Amino acid sequence: MKGIKDLTEGPILRQLFMLAMPIMATSFIQMAYSLTDMAWVGRLGSEAIAAVGSVGLLIWMTTSLSLLNKVGSEVSVGQAIGMKDETAARSFATHNLTLSLMISAAWAIILFSFAPTIISFYELKEHIASDAINYLRIVSTAFPFVFISGAFTGIFNASGRSKIPFTINGIGLIINMILDPLFIFIFDWKTDGAALATWLAQACVFGLFVYQLKFKKILWDDFRFFCKLKRDYITRIVKIGFPVATLNVLFAFVNMFLGRTASTVGGHIGLMAMTTSGQIEAITWNTSQGFSTALSAFVAQNYAAKKISRVMKALKSTLFMTLVFGIFCSLLFIFWGNNIFAIFVPEREAYEAGGLALRIDGYSQLFMMLEIVIQGVFYGMGRTIPPAIISISCNYLRIPMAFLFVSFGWGLSGIWWTICLTSIIKGIIILIWFLFIKRKTLNKMAIEENHNIN
After folding, report:
1. Rounded CA separation 189/200 (Å)
2. Residue 179 pLDDT level (bands cut at 50, 70, 90)
3. pLDDT tens figures, 296-345
4. R_g of the chain computed on alpha carbons
5. What is the pLDDT of residues 123-157, one digit of tens each?
6. Residue 230, CB half-sphere, CA atoms under 13 Å: how many?
7. d(Cα 23, Cα 14) in Å, to the nearest integer?
8. Torsion of CA 35, 58, 287, 83, to 10 degrees
9. How many other CB atoms are there within 10 angstroms of residue 309's CB atom?
10. pTM reported for the whole predicted model
11. What is the 3-state secondary structure of the chain?
12. From CA 164, how far away is CA 52, in angstroms rounded?
């Protein structure tokens, strides 16, 4: 198949590493979009950061929705490639793109139309809320670019061509970094300028993906982006992607409630500390997510080809790499939380509140990375429901826990400890669930694989 890499043969560690590095770098680039906005808007003050941060939770929800087609692409296209079925791979790719356009258009219209009602949820001061509404309305019109680019990324990852999304998103980041200070300070558009810079960067990313597939024909000749939807393909995509999107959307809802609680307890400083510390924590989240996505694409092809020994070796290698990085980040957050936060928001009250959030969160980093990496194996096998059950149940546990800890008089630290403890619980539960599936299913498949080789 043209332009597609076969991950079912060859050195495992090298393939995994070469696949994971661009994906991880792409995740960091996507994180850097938000951090770049935060770093520049932070110079406008904590109120401006609170306005952008409130919308950041909605952007998180948007990214979560787009996972339906990103993960749907990675798994459905990857498994079709593993089974050497080029027709199915092309059809799954086209169906994912069509579905992502339909969902994103509807979602953008909802957010644009109901922006004032949505932002009122945080009970911010009137001038902060006004900035947040304008920011939301601008970025929401770029959400179709975000959704379709996510599906493009999934298609390239499944094809073993993860360097292409990395390069394209890198160009988008550079555009965003150039436009942010220009629009925010020189044109004096403030938070609206940050939103416009993000809009233009996302539009450029979308255009570059179209160029790679349609004009350079990097994967297939005469590739069609959109099609008339067929039930069999949609059913398969939704079965794979819906649990992943659901758990992430519900996770975003939980964080909106926690954001409102933080705003109630600590004012705009509380909301700012929660949203900005979450963006900083994305250093570890995106690293593990990059490895997890690579593992998912690798597992999808090898699981479909019934090469279980390669699946297990890939998992062990990924866990080791994320363990080393997780320890480093835990120490960084625990001992230098204030210093890290002050880079983005130099106000003393702000970086002290945010530094406390990072220090407490530091204790859960290894467990969070464990959860995300093992999710990659589940996704590659097409079993997206178990991670969804674990994530949804534990994330919704955060709401009563936060209310309980705040009622103890713990203030904002009660919210931070809620996030930390539930992350630890999720990591432990998903490990136990995977070990059960390994004993029940994977070990038997491995025995059959050895028998066929012998």
Report:
1. 15
2. very high
3. 878 887 888 788 888 888 888 888 888 888 888 899 999 998 898 888 77
4. 21
5. 778 888 899 999 999 999 999 999 999 899 888 88
6. 9
7. 14
8. -140
9. 15
10. 0.69
11. CCCCCCCCCCCHHHHHHHHHHHHHHHHHHHHHHHHHHHHHHHHHCHHHHHHHHHHHHHHHHHHHHHHHHHHHHHHHHHHHHHCCCHHHHHHHHHHHHHHHHHHHHHHHHHHHHCHHHHHHHHCCCHHHHHHHHHHHHHHHCCHHHHHHHHHHHHHHHHCCCCHHHHHHHHHHHHHHHHHHHHHHHHCCCHHHHHHHHHHHHHHHHHHHHHHHHHHCCCCCCCCCCCCCCCHHHHHHHHHHHHHHHHHHHHHHHHHHHHHHHHHHHHHHHHHHHHHHHHHHHHHHHHHHHHHHHHHHHHHHHHHHCCCHHHHHHHHHHHHHHHHHHHHHHHHHHHHHHHHHHHHHCCCHHHHHHHHHHHHHHHHHHHHHHHHHHHHHHHHHCCCCHHHHHHHHHHHHHHHHHHHHHHHCCCCHHHHHHHHHHHHHHHHHHHHHHHHHHHHHHHHHHHHHHHHHHC
12. 30
State the Cα–Cα distance between residues 80 and 193, nearest whole angstrom: 43
Give the count of alpha carbons within 13 A of 167, CB side only: 8
Pick the closest to residue 247 from 374, 102, 23, 65 (CA basis): 65
Contact (Cβ atoms closer than 8 angstroms) between residue 150 and residue 72: no
Question: Which residue carries 């990496």 as its tokens?
Answer: 373
* The residue to which tokens 């965003």 are assigned: 176
Cα 431 from Cα 453, distance rounded (Å): 30
CA distance 424 to 446: 30
Amino acid at 68: L
SS3 sequence of 87-149? HHHHHHHHHHHHHHHHHHHHHHHHHHHCHHHHHHHHCCCHHHHHHHHHHHHHHHCCHHHHHHH
